[in-house]
Batch of 2 targets.
Target 1
Amino acid sequence: MAQVPFVDYLVLGDDPHLTAHECTACGARYFDRRLACASCEGREFRTAAVATSGEVRAFTIVSLAAPGIPVPFVAAVIDCDGTSVRANIVNVPPDADHVALGMKVRLTTFPVGTDSAGTEAVVFGFEPA
Amino acid sequence: MSSGDVWILGIHMTKFGKHPDQTTVELAAEAALGALADANVHMKDMGILAAGNLMGGGGMGQQLQKAIGQTGIPVYNVANACATGATALRTAVMAIKAGECDYGLAVGVEKLAGAGLLAGGSRKAESDTWTPAGPYGAVAPIDGRIGTETMPGVFAQIGMEYGHKYGGTSFDLFAKISEKNHAHSTLNPKAAYQKRFTLDEIKNDVMIAYPNTRPMCSANCDGAAAAVVVSDAKLRTLDPDQRRRAIKISASVLTSDPWEEACQILPNVNTLTRNAAKQAYEQAGVGPEDLDLVELHDCFATAELVHYDNLMLCPEGGAVDFFNSGATWRDGSIPVNVSGGLESKGHPIAATGIANIWEVCTHLRGEGGDRQIEGATVGLAHVIGLGSACGVHILEKAGV
């Protein structure tokens, strides 16, 4: 089945990982398309692979969300070896007894749906390591 | 000899709550006319109008003029998320500081009753084929799939991040902050909600985004606030009664967030608030220990905690101990949000950054009634608009 990453900074395949646009001048990293660096005004970026494991620096358990989003779910900020990543924490009961600040997690990928052309979209999350 | 200071001559806040029978413009007009009457001046005296409103479709300043007085003065319609009201006030202050006029009017108004979630709460339908689009090359909206964009969720993480950095936070702690503000609201007849909650009631209420339950979230409501500001030189020519009630704006500061690692992943509301506070204390020549009361941006209980630290009301990393000491209750050493805060007074977005200044001025004037902080002479008002913008004003009772 054809697959498409949910966002363009997710690389699928045998070794799924995230990539960032890294400023060649100051090393600041961004996940979105950039014209310039917000840190140093640099204009050149290279593609940098982001560590696939990290530590939960902040989280919340969202119980009220937009229609169509299954709740509750855990939203978090993961410190991946110095690069902060926004993601859901998955494969764990979404409650404060099972998710903790400082918890070690690793990247995982999973399908979120198939479109009318039969292409499967794949998103990333982090699961307990 | 003029000091170059700018003063609040008149200020007014409508009751916050549900106003189904008033339009947004009528609410703004009520606040503006109230501020003009409080100052004992008229629209024809004003040299600038700055108006803030986010949900009303634009052009609020001109619509307000058509309701209460079209005099041809410059109008600035400002938008700065939840810091919109403070930005409107600061715009009028800057015009006076620049010597362009002696009087300015700043207004903030919003109708939000029943609005629900304000970000991440609505999404476009997903298309029937996955097509990457936008700066993240996303095939569908990322809110909920890759973290959360909802305000309760974002600010929940901001509070949790503080806990990760310094320790000591818990569901109980954040609920206790909310308990304080709801208790304070019982003395404020202009608050949208005046109900006192027990700690258990707060914790057992509907969970929105852990650890924020519903009473720990700012209350969407309708409301408006307005202020008339005046130059020092003009104030000196006015009647003793006007001069006696004038409140000095000892500091007026607006900041945005400097780049830091992670600031585009989870908004950093800390650095820009700390930067604004530092500038404000320096401008005013006062320190946190001089403050008699603080109105800070408790859009969520989790946010109030971090701002104790950001505004330097406590040593760095010491917000939990500071709160647990009782310092921020109305009988504590630095009462915080004696109005009830955004969690109970309500948060009509663009009005908030002037309403908090009204609260401080009311105490400095000794007109706080049942909730008066006795002998208050210096106060601070703080707002954060996510994105981010931070407004800090320090206000002082001072004779002229």
Note: Chain A has one domain: 3-128.
Target 2
Amino acid sequence: MGKIDLTVGIGGAAGQGIATPGDVLARIFVRRGLHLKAYNAYQSIIRGGHIFLMLRTGDQPVLSQGGKIDILIPLNQDTMDRHLKLMRSGSIVLYNSDKIGPGTAADGVQLCPFSVKELLPQMKGDLVQNTIAVAALLRLVGVEFKMLEDILTVQFKRKGESVIAENVGVARAGYDYAEAHFKPLPFSLPNTGKRLAFFEGNQALAMGGAAAGVRFYCAYPMSPASGVLHWMARHARQLGIMVRQVEDEIGVINMAIGAAHAGCRAMCATSGGGFALMSEALGSAAMMEIPVVCINVQRAGPATGVPTKTEQGDLWQVMGAGQGDYPRIIVAPTNIPDCFKTVPELFNLVDKFQCPGIILSDLLLSEGRSSVDPAELDFNVSIERGEVIGLRGDAPPVNGGYKRYLVTESGISPRAVPGTPGYVHVVATDEHDEEGVLISDEFTNPHKRRAIHEKRMRKMEGVLPLLEPPELFGPGEAQVTLVGWGSTEGAIREAIEKLAEEEGIVANHLQVKWLVPLQGEAILSILSRSKKIVIVENNYSGQFARYLRSETGIAANGHIRKYDGEPFLPHHIVDGVKKIVAGETEKYVPVHEIMV
Amino acid sequence: MSTAITDIEARTQGEAGTRHGHVQLTVKELKGKVDPDWCPGCGDFGVLAALKQAIVDLGLQPHEVLTVSGIGCSSNLPGYINAYGMHTLHGRALAVATGAQLANHNLKVVVTGGDGDGYGIGGNHFLHNMRRNVDLTYLVMDNQIYGLTTGQISPTSVKGMKTKSTPFGSVENAINPIPLAIAGGATYVARGFTGQQKHLVGLIKGGIQHRGFALIDIFSPCVTYNHDNSHEFFKARVRRLEEMGHDPTDFHAAMDKAYLWGEAIPIGLFWKRTDLPALDELEPVLAEGGPLAYRPLGVSPEAAKSLIQDLM
């Protein structure tokens, strides 16, 4: 059997109900054990505008949302007009001919019109066409009707038997119509017998937090980070998590710090604008030595920017957040399941080193969806709280004066939580001595300042050896090494496959996950063997390229950048590598073809 | 420097695990690690003394109290008292204190700061913590001036006041925190004066005992930068509400009294209601299981299974 690789595009206006057919298809794919990546390109509008959901499935792991569309379901004329030109020979367009005209399709594109009026003259409402289209689609890829019926039954369970029966009836009409009138694709979607799960990155981050033992979550709503808040709020009572919506992001981070100081694992999430408001407080968490985790789900900036579009434009903001030097750990998960795994890892680190931790996600990861093997979702993670006293409300007797900021070789000083008898102390955002007494005002002392500043910063030396080392993917000997960070991993991996298969260019790949502290020596030793280094990132100025150069001295030979709000598709990277390898350019900015 | 602390902590060691040690503290034992660096004659000394007395009178132990402050002269207070303390960022004390209180609702959380810190830069947190009725006692040392930045107008500076930032007199109206707090949802609203210590101790004790958000705005004169609203100014004008026949459960009377300013300025308890639960009492997650901070971490295998099932 050949490799199955199917991409469905569903487009329409906000409010036309694209989410439901998307959910139904995603659920059917993963229930057949097929892999999935989905990305919804949308606009900051509640009704109207244009939304385009791409769902890609296959029997091999799906690395990105791809680039080609096999089946297009335009729910309005706008979508037909925007996307028909992308459809190539062998592809299918399913649409309601009552409302939508086809336009001119390329040779070999199968136009599949259906008329809701003729098919179901008694039915009213816009959503009928969605159900018919999904059912027809499933027929054309050889999925048995029973599976759709089961999913619709679950989907409409809350609305009662008559709604279920009505929807199943509509679906049946669409399914049978497709069988009678349209030519199916030359392959059927297999059923592997294994069931996968699927989730979006924000769910993965929230679930990772729950696994890590987050007991306090707070946030101010901001796209594209609100999904974390929504998941946390929905599961708060079930899991015993305090969830608060706060008046602003300054309040958010400070509230999380208060809860963290009292002993909770505390987390918050926002996007770049909210993160900007949190800057000062992140430094204060480092100064008071309180572990807290903040997620920044990047969107296209600056300022309000493009709220529903993706970018990797906050790297320097996050690295530069807050005044002064302070210890903190910054990590960018590289795929959606990795979001889940990263949160507990980061909590163990920030608890051990008593400093803030920042997760850099972006809209692509956080609102994108991925299949995942349920076995990978291990909630039984190791939880290491570090040197902390009084978490059960009691503590060993203190022998002599307790020093909260005791100067130690590791820089880590035992942390007592308030409420613990015998360990009374004050934590301060002013510089302080070992006992927490301020040395900022009356008792300024350059020797004490140096000692305590060095103690704090020394903690970073301990972090580095605990991080998983970066690994080169692909052949050791290659013409080009592609370097990315965070969410671009999947698109780059797929580009490497395409480069080898379609262009005969041998490339390998280094994806950087841990940004601060940067594993500079390990990266240097990997990249020193590279013939040509090309850095791929979703921003204008090459923020990571500049960072890598400042930390390692490595100056890349080429750059592929994108800052139009949409994520990289693999062929964008392929095109860039071809041009850079041919010496045509050092910097390539692809043109995004799918207009949303 | 820390003998007093070591002594009292050693004496209370035996009681670790019991909620109230039976050792009666003295005010002396509540002395912090260092002496205040406030100007001689600063009103804040009076607030510190009154807070210590209130803690002693209530039979609290140092580890049961968490003081949280922002930045400013008065926000240095946590360093001068033998209790857990957080000296946070300018304006952020209430937000930090809310997190700490919800994480461990056994703590008595006392927030201390100035008028600029609380009503200016921290104004948004002030508004929202009142409506949430977070169980905090908020002591605002109101000197109607920015002192630590060497004398500029604050949100409570009287219109016309001349300072370094308003050399020709301020043209802006001042915030009146008392009606703001009553309207904003605070459930215990009082005003004290550092020149009336016993009265102030009573207000602070009432605030700590009150379940919900208690604001005590305290005239705490700045001897260096505010020569208009001095100790003598207030001494000549303050009148106790208790002696004015005021009923603190009467909303309209409280609002009327809150607007009195001039030859007679009322101090005392303006407004109190006990029919509204505090935020921690409303939160189902805290209904059982004790303080969040002390609970074991992790997700049960059953819960994990159902979370994963939802994704399939």
Note: The first strand of chain A starts at residue 5 and ends at 14.
